[in-house]
Structures are given as C-alpha cells and as structure tokens.
Amino acid sequence: MSGIGGSNYWEDLRKQARQLENELDLKLVSFSKLCTSYSSSRDGRRGDTSDTTPLLNNSTQDRMFDTMSVEIEQLLAKLTVVNDKMAEYTNTPGTASLNAALMHTLQRHRDILQDYTHEFHKTKGNFLAIREREDLLGSVRKDIESYKSGSGVNNRRTEMFLKEHEHLRNSDRLMDDTISIAMATKENMTSQRGFLKSIQSRVNTLANRFPTINNLIQRVNLRKRRDSLILGTVIGVCTILLLLYAFH
Fold first, then answer.
1. pLDDT tens-digit profile of 185-229?
2. Which InterPro entries does the record associate with it (predicted)?
3. What is the pLDDT of residues 204-215, one digit of tens each?
4. In Å, what is the CA distance from 4 to each residue of 7, 8, 20, 103?
C-alpha cells in the first residue's frame, strides 16, 4: 500500500480515530455526571419514607450505568483496533520517508486512548465504591428503623447511634468532595503541563530550523542565569550585612 491509495487509507484511519475520540469524550462526560449525581440523589431520596420510589430510581441509574459502561467499552475497543491498523500502516514498505510524522501522529492517538481508558476505569471504580458504600449505609439505616419501629423504644442510645451515623456519613461526603477537588486540580495541572510541553516542543522545532532564533534563545538563557547569579550574590551580601548589624 503506497502512493495516493496509502495516503487515503491513512487519512481514513485518522478520521475514524478522531470520530471515535469525540464520541468517547462526550460519553465520558455524561458518564462522569451520572456517577457524580448518584450519591447526591441517594442522599436526597434517603429521607423519603417510601420504599418503591428509591428502588425504581436506583434501578434506573444502575441500568444507565451498565448501558453506558458497555457503550464506552465498545468505543474503546474500536479505537484500539483503529490504532492497531495505524501501527500496521507505519510498518508498510514505502512509508519510510514519512515514518517520523506518522509515528508522532500514532503516538498522539495512543496517548489519547490511554487517557480515556484510565479515566473510564477510574470513574467506574469510584461509582462502584459509592454504590457499595451507599448500599451498606442504607442497610444499616434500614435495620435501625426496623428496630425502632419493632420495639417502639426511642431511647437515648438509639438517638446517639443515629447521630453518630449521620456524622460519619457527612464526614464521608466531605472527604469525597475533597478528593474530587484534588483530582480536578491534578487533571487541570496535567493539562497545563501538556500544553506547556507542546509550546516548548514548537519553540525547539523553530530553534532547530532557524539557528538565529536558537542563538538568541541561548543568549537569553545565559543572561537569565547571569542575572540570577548577580541577584543571589546581592541577596547573600545583604543577608550577611544584616546579620553582622544584628549581632553587633
């Protein structure tokens, strides 16, 4: 496969990859929203005394979770197949002159696939952990309510147990919110780091193509280091003079 036909085949693969990546991005956003709203919706329904409505709502969310999980896994599998085909194309005879550019494009699509796979498994794991925890807390609360209704005793020990249970649930929710904020901050910093790396790569490319720019960048770096040394020396001298004056 070479020439115009090979080029069209490669572009078709890239088009398929971009389309699958866009679909995955939308699916993962919806999937994340479903997992985030799951716990809050359970909290809102927990105060309801009706038994049927929560069960119906929980069942609906569980079915949505299972359906979206299958759809995302299928999209990830399709994207993996497209990446494998792109990798095979890079090894086709006649593409040696374009191999560097092809490998760069392939690596970018592989990185996107890896990021989406990691995000999917992380969100799915968080959802399953929340569901297991909420089921456990709901079971405990149901047992407490059954005990209260069966015995007809509203003693101090039961009230203390309920208050402690509520306190633990609130602490658990606060911890989840803190972890979510930390993860969002980490993802934002990772995105910024990738953006800065991209800028640095472009600057290095321009510097390699234009020696004058490269020399200018080196001079700027040397001047920055020189200014840093001068500033450090001045700060050191001032610090020593302040110490001598203080202990004089």
1. 667 777 777 776 677 677 666 666 666 766 777 777 788 788 888
2. Golgi_SNAP_su1
3. 666 666 667 667
4. 5, 6, 24, 19
**Per-residue H/E/C for the chain:** CCHHHHHHHHHHHHHHHHHHHHHHHHHHHHHHHHHHHHHHHHHHHHCCCCCHHHHHHHHHHHHHHHHHHHHHHHHHHHHHHHHHHHHHHHCCCCCHHHHHHHHHHHHHHHHHHHHHHHHHHHHHHHHHHHHHHHHHHHHHHHHHHHHHHHHCCCCHHHHHHHHHHHHHHHHHHHHHHHHHHHHHHHHHHHHHHHHHHHHHHHHHHHHHHCHHHHHHHHHHHHHHHHHHHHHHHHHHHHHHHHHHHHCC
